[in-house]
Amino acid sequence: MGNVAIKANALIKWFGEGETKTIAVKSASFEANFGELLYIVGPSGSGKTTLLSMISGILKPNEGSVLVEGKDIWQMKSDDIADLRLHKIGFVFQDYHLFPRLTTVENVAIPLILKKMDWNEAIKVALEYLEIVGLKDRAQLQPVKLSGGEQQRVAIARAIAGHPDILIFDEPTASLDGDTGRKIVEFIKTKILNAERCVIIVTHDSRIYEYADSIMKMEDGNIIGFERNTLHVA
Amino acid sequence: MSGILKIALKLLVNDRSKFIALLVGITFAVFLMIMMMSMFSGILSRSSSSVYNIGAKIWVMDPAVNNATSSIPMPDYVLSTARSIDGVKYAVPIYFGNALVKLKSGAYQAVSVVGLDDATLYGRPELIEGKIEDIYAESAFFVVKDAEFKKLESPAIGTEFEINDHRGLVVGLAKVASGGLFGIPTVYTTYNRAITYIPSMRFTTSYILIEPKHDTDIPFIQQQIKKLGYQALTRDQFVNKISDFYTYQTGMGMNVLMMTAISFIVGLSISGQTFYTFILENMERFGALKAIGAKGHELIAMILFQASFTALIGYGLGVGLASGLMILAKLRLPSYAAQVTYTNLIFAFVMVLIMAGVSSYIGVRKVLQIQPFDIFRG
Known about the structure:
heterodimer, A: 234 residues, B: alpha+beta
């Protein structure tokens, strides 16, 4: 495995046509490496989520390419991209998107089940990941019975259960109080990130900037800065 | 069961209010469809009961006859001619009529009277009490012991009654394969006694029953009878003619069809709408699954499974409910005319599959439209 996890080349994305055409991302190029915690920051409407979607194989760019571990994902068929997301990329959505009708452990087992793992085996493995995030005792509860921070940790457990090389967090602290937000990012930094994994976090929460290895700033669809974090927390 | 289908099942059944609403919609529709069709089947079956009970292979009748109880008497020469046709093993007359019986209590009760050919007693019922030869005794009648038997005050052998002001004597109790449609008791006697006791027109033969030498002779016999201006129908053809009459000429068939269609539409509306709402409420989950890596065909399988599972459970409940109600009705009303046939079950099953198919189609279209990007955008 090379050191570059994701390489984006001159990505452009627009929505609408004619007078309603809006360019969300204007020629974005960057690299994210394994072992790196990369933040994509910027104000609302700056194109962060659109960029994140393009690099994770969810939204097709109008121009440019995305290489995930050296493979141009937008040259793949849709089922192959789905496979790539399932095997290589883990998502933690802003609103968690946990399944309220499933138990916590069943939520965590979803990527494993999608990988065709036997149900009982998947539940067993999911329990191990719940233990990692400290929620094994909440395994049989429904997500609605958990606090916001706990739900976030369940979403993290679900994202890492599939053993992805790349983890993508969309505004992980947006609906958490400052302390819980910091604890979550600290947990990501210390327990989730490793030398064989790349973690990308989209945020505009400046309270957690100190945990980043690199920060990429966006504004009006442009990458306006890419810097190593000087406030680095080990 | 594969894991993805287990997830689909849990998403469905754990949403109890929606799941129950879906089941109620489909169960109700199936219940109504089965009830409608079963009542109609029961009526059709009862309407042909005489044809089944008598059991003749060929029935000769006036072409205007459209059901067994509305016979048009035929002149005697038809019987003589029928007996002379090549291929006829034997031909006998039979009489169908109605009479009024005065019971011991003084009450009057309408009865259906079947007059069997005196020489052969062809078409006689199976006796459960009494001797067949006693039918030749004076004023002798067999009474059919069916659901209507009680209306004659449950007579025993030796019970006397008045029939159209004549003396009648019960000499045997009989059983038949199928009860009649109109809820009146049936008595059997000889042809000659029947036409003596019951006022009739100049001609008295209701039907001529023919036994062909071989089944291959039937078309020729039918041809020859047609030349006389009459009609010879096989048992199945006669049953179909009666069914056609009740289905198309009484309005009954159209009513049942309309009620069945309404039941289907009501069921489809409830299940389709509820399933659509269920899909809409789970759009984010399907979007999340897509983002995580579920493929389109897996999501389609989930939706098809959810719709089919609900449809099959609803179908089972609907059939069970309808059958249960019919059993209860028959306990209370033994002559209740309803029967669940394989055709009814298959028809209702196909309708339920259509409901599931339409509901799934709506759901699949919606789910395939959702983009994981929408999940990211919140």
